[in-house]
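Note to self: the last two entries modelled the partners one at a time, which told us nothing about the interface. This time every component goes in together.
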Amino acid sequence: MRTLPRWREISDDLLHRVQEGEFAHGFPGELALSERYGVSRGTIRQALTPLREQGIVGGGRGRRPYVINTSRTSGFGPMYSLRDAITARGGNESSEVVAQRIVTSPQVSTALGLAAQTPFVHVARVRTADGAPFAMDRLWIIASAAEPLLEADLTETSVHDVLRTRCGVEFDAGVEYTHSVPASAEVADRLAVDEGSPLLTVRRKSCLAGRPAELRDTCAVGDRVTLTHVFGDASAVLDCGGDGRPIEIPWD
Amino acid sequence: MRTLPRWREISDDLLHRVQEGEFAHGFPGELALSERYGVSRGTIRQALTPLREQGIVGGGRGRRPYVINTSRTSGFGPMYSLRDAITARGGNESSEVVAQRIVTSPQVSTALGLAAQTPFVHVARVRTADGAPFAMDRLWIIASAAEPLLEADLTETSVHDVLRTRCGVEFDAGVEYTHSVPASAEVADRLAVDEGSPLLTVRRKSCLAGRPAELRDTCAVGDRVTLTHVFGDASAVLDCGGDGRPIEIPWD
DNA sequence: TAGTGGTCTAGACCACCTT
DNA sequence: AGGTGGTCTAGACCACTAT
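The predicted structure of the combined assembly is written out below.
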């Protein structure tokens, strides 16, 4: 695990402070931050970029800077600008781990363009909110980068967090494919829905230092899950009614 | 329409050249670009940032820079890092415009947090690839910013392009909600699928200068459409087989 | 009018990859 | 070894907003 650049340390620190509510009554400007951290304004701007892109802090030329969203549970990193969050309808969320071991898989290796015998850490979980399953996911990460994952408790912790803190690993590129498919018999059984009912599936392939490193499938119940993506300071269109369900208007 | 910053002009110019294949045999380095455009390296880095984020050019410390993806049809702009493209299975794509007029709508105004009588330009289309409909979309944009849209030919041109070139308008923030829902009778009829079959719906709310400006609903046939998001230099995991459909392996 | 962020410059040093 | 991009500095000027 190499040392992080200064701008990244500052960015992490600011995110942490924001999440603890430190700036609820006003976020400092770039000049003030520049003094506080003892770095140039350019470095501060670099640190603020991800926070602004992800809509965590807002402001703009002339405006007083402010905090938009404190409740953001997501970690930090570029992949979160891809798929910010799967939000379940419900409160208490936990996971049942149904697989957590080393495997090889020709299908996975092929999908990632790796050698057929590449060993992966394989994790599969069923995610539950308030007693009702709302999604299942499974992932394969090249074992050489993710062995501590085998011993982690994944019922309450995200894989991303474990990778970051225990493995010092963060994905730097990737692609996501999202589909809507009918539930197969097996999945319908595990998620307690009717066979054929609409599911949201997301396949993600991620890279580590430019090399394929992870394949992840997420499979979510259509009417229990909303996939949300935020870009920039969207505070003007958040929380103004509706959860994104289509408006009931004829398609004239 | 105000003048664009220099870095943005350079970014647009580079994207244009990339798409015309000018750099197929090698992309210039930052120093070379700095000389060519007569600006400092910082400005060049700013211009390259969106191209690198969207995985259009690649490289890295020490590596020779290169072009990853020329065939990118998408325009330019931050919203495209949200929902890069809806890719249909098929070749010839066109749209049938089923609505293109000024309207007011309490539902839309409410969803955007605007006054109930706000006039919108309303556009609704059914999108077809190789003769089969694969998606429909409808949008409402505040009329004051988008009037030229009323007279545009939208059968072959994207709304985004018209907004950019004719209205000088680009969204700077937004949120997208993605769901999987069963087809209603009306939508099933228009898209030529069975009632109840899985659809992918995307609702987007966008901002212009920090104010709500657009609501857009897209409704796509599950098995004809893939929603793709790319982050960074994902060249290692693109084109290595599979279209993102879930692997057929039991969820042990 | 004061303070903010957006843009831009002209340097510097270093880590990393290719050769 | 030479070239690349990543990081950082210390300035500058300007557009915009709030007051």
